[in-house]
Amino acid sequence: MEHEKEKQGKVDLPREIPILPLRNTVAYPFMVIPLVVGIKRSVKLVEDALQGDRIIGLVTMKDGHIEEPQPGEVYEVGTLAKIDRVLRAPNENTLQIVVQGIERFRVKHWIGSEPYLRAEVEPASDIIEKDLETDALERSLRELAQEVIHLSPNLPKEAAALLNQVQDPQYLSYLVASNLRLDVPEGQLVLELDRAKEKFRHLIAYLARERDILSLGKKIKNDAQEEMDKAQRDYYLRQQLKAIRKELGEGEAPESPVDEYREKIEKAGLPEEAEKEALRELKRLSSMSPHSAEYPVIQTYLDWLCDLPWNEVSVDETDIVGARRVLDEDHYDLEEVKDRIIEYLAVHQLVKERGAEPDAAEGQDGPDGTGVILCFAGPPGVGKTSLGQSIARALGRKFTRMSLGGMRDEAEIRGHRRTYIGAMPGRIIQAIKRAGTRNPVFMLDEVDKIGTDWRGDPSSALLEVLDPAQNHAFRDHYLDLDFDLSDVIFITTANQLETIPGPLRDRMEIIQLDGYTEYEKLHIARRHLVSRQLRANGLRPDEITFTDEALLKIIQDYTREAGVRNLERQIGAVCRKAVVRIAGREAEHITITPEIVRQYLKKEKFDSETSETIEIPGIATGLAVTAVGGDILFIEATQMRGKGRLTLTGQLGDVMRESAQIAHSYVRSKADGLGIAPELFEQTDVHVHVPAGAIPKDGPSAGIAMVMAMASLFSGRSVRGDVGMTGEVTLRGRVMPVGGIKMKVLAAHRAGLKAVILPKRNERDLEELPEEVLKAMRFVLVDRIDEALSVALEPAEGEGEVQQAVHA
After folding, report:
1. Chain-centre distance of CA 465, in angstroms?
2. Which residue in 462, 542, 544 sits closest to 500, CA to CA?
3. Is there a cis peptide before residue 115, judged by omega within 30 degrees of 0?
4. Are residues 538 and 634 in the same domain?
5. How far apart are CA 660 and CA 648, in angstroms?
6. Residue 263, CA distances (Å) to 255, 266, 267, 278, 311 in order
7. CATH number at residue 536
């Protein structure tokens, strides 16, 4: 084997040469390279080289983002080059030069970096071994390069002829490397390899991979073109087949989907805008292949346009007496709600008979005054959802319902745009389509439980739907057309008004449903619940009879709720027990008595009166409003030897904590009037606890109960066990009004309390209470906490003993 170094292009090197760094480019010997020089020191380098032998060294930067690299930031194997031409740009700051590579070199050591990089270098000629392996590698490289040229659309085909003319293996390797899209590390590796065989092997591996990628890309392109040609060919053949059948008179060809949709559009009676859009989409469909991906998308859109009830309207029942009868049949009590519905019907009937006033004030609920949005707010089980069905039956309209609980995506309301895969209209439009009319009674359940996340705010999307001034032109994202919702009666339901956003709540008329008394529950059970559970369990009215005493026992001992949902469950449980006996031929008729209820439902879940007989000081009974209605709330306080600290437990919110601190300060300030030794506060720690510690509690309405508990604790006088209280207390002892009076008083009545202490400014709220509650309970209205002390606290007995026990 013969080894020798080729000396082609070798020149005598000076002792040191200027080094020009290249950004994102690798220079090779023999190659002509155009360069743009703009860095100040690089311009200086070129100008100095032009004054001498025009020889410079080209090396590649390791990091192309560095403006002026220093030794160590450039590779140390580069290409010696000679400057052929120089052009100065018009702005005088940039040079355009053309250089030709001569030979490889390797930096021995760096001389300096000012005014530009300079280094002492040594030639590094390629080692070319003339043997069979070199010839074989050279031939493989040449053939692979020609294949890549033929497959690549970016390389000129003349380059293949040039490869055949190149005989020098060194020139061949650099020619191929300079025309490939090698990244800087790959290109630098080709330059740094000393042996020609290693260069050939590296380039052959890269070219083989590039050839495979180009071949696969060409195959994919050819397959796609064949699919398009086949679809076009099928379309032409179908058109020709249709014409041939028509000429031969072999009967009408099956009606095309385009003709079917055109007939549907004519029958649908679309508004002008919707009809124009439908015909535009139909025109696109007619010129499209059925195999196109967009063909079924347009079909689905046209189906929605044609199926929506653009002009289908239910005729309202205008019989006021009949509507009142329907509402009374379906629901007991709820007089305020029924009166509001009757008002709606009466206004609607009168306006329809006389015609709308032409000068109706702009911004009102509509020319007929019927564009109002009702919101039924109250605890679960009071009949909010079923009331919507009764309204629809009274009006003779279709009923549709949508639950908003847990909804977090705005697209649920407005729909998705058709650009998305699987897009559909929002649930508003879907519900209108299901109803089949443009003016149904539309119930939006759980409007207080809408959520918000990155997909948008559904409550904001509802603003347009529930605004009578805007919803005549509701625009769903999928349809992208105006749909008139102004004739829809929207009814919303909520358990808590606080969680409904203000702008949304402002668009609704709030009707509060606060719960039922035991008397009302008894009537509801007799008139509705028992008969419904008899039908649900396959019983006939002559097979089972509920006595009033049995129903009252279920109400008092097995349920404790504002509504009647759990009451119906317990009645159903009794019915199922009775079914077992009747089906087993043990009895033909069963009369449900309190004893039978106890036998079927086992032990009682609640005491008939949950109010406690309070015998020790430091406990007061407060009243509160929860998500499921009113409830009683016990405030417990105890004292121990300490330094006057106050401890609060029971998952109390900030406002309720402040109420406890105010109560402690007030009782301490009135110590003399309550017969309490002032030094007792400095020697005693107080712990206030509100039971049911796992449930968060907040609000100022427990302030009066906090004062009573602490006054009782320090004075030794127990709080009367049959007295409940609610009201906010100020630091100076004033009692401020609070909300939810009806639900709180109903809870006190259910719990067996005999008296309730209320703020005097809440006196007007007593008008909403049922007559039987007003007769059964005593109400004490107070302006100051002093007025309540004599009512709530037992007479002062044994006060001295209690205080002595504390000091002990």
Report:
1. 19
2. 462
3. yes
4. no
5. 8
6. 11, 5, 6, 12, 17
7. 1.10.8.60
Residue 126 CA from chain centroid, whole number: 66
Using DSSP bridges, classify how beta strands 489-494 and 778-782 pair: parallel, antiparallel or unpaired: unpaired
The tens digit of pLDDT for each residue in 653-684 reads: 899 999 999 999 998 888 888 888 888 888 88
Specify the CATH number for the domain of residue 766.
Answer: 3.30.230.10
Q: Is residue 232 part of a domain?
A: no
Q: Give this prediction's pTM.
A: 0.57
* Structural domain includes residue 236: no
Chain centroid to CA 1: how far?
Answer: 76
Which of 512, 539, 561 is the last residue in one of the domains?
A: 512
* Residue range(s) defining the domain that contains residue 102: 2-125
- Do β-strands 489-494 and 374-377 pair in parallel, antiparallel, or remain unpaired? parallel
CATH number at residue 41: 2.30.130.40
- The per-residue pLDDT for range 121-134, each reduced to its tens digit, is 888 888 888 888 88
Q: Known catalytic residues?
A: 701, 744
The answer to whether residues 274 and 356 belong to one domain is no
Q: What is the dihedral of CA 318, 323, 325, 330, to 10 degrees?
A: 160
Last residue of a domain, one of 551, 566, 601: 601
Clarify whether residues 422 and 562 are in a common domain: no
Does the pLDDT value for residue 412 go beyond 50? Answer: yes
Rounded to a whole number, what is the distance in angstroms from the first to the last CA of the chain? Answer: 115
Say whether both 299 and 346 belong to one domain.
no
The two three-digit tokens of residue 248, written as one number: 């031969």
Is 687 found in the same domain as 648? yes
Rounded Cα gap, residues 384 and 491, in angstroms: 10
Which amino acid belongs to residue 8?
Q
Cβ atoms 194, 128 nearer than 8 A: no
762 and 689 within one domain: yes
Beta-carbon contacts of residue 432 (< 8 Å; ≥ 6 apart)? 308, 309, 400, 438, 440, 442, 483, 485, 488
How many structural domains comprise the chain? 5
User: Is the model's pLDDT at 367 over the cut of 60?
Assistant: no
- Does residue 186 come out as left (phi exceeding 0), alpha (psi in the -120 to 50 range) or beta? alpha
Q: What is the C-alpha separation between 741 and 739, in angstroms, rounded?
A: 6
Quote the CA–CA distance of 258 and 242 in Å, as a whole number. 14
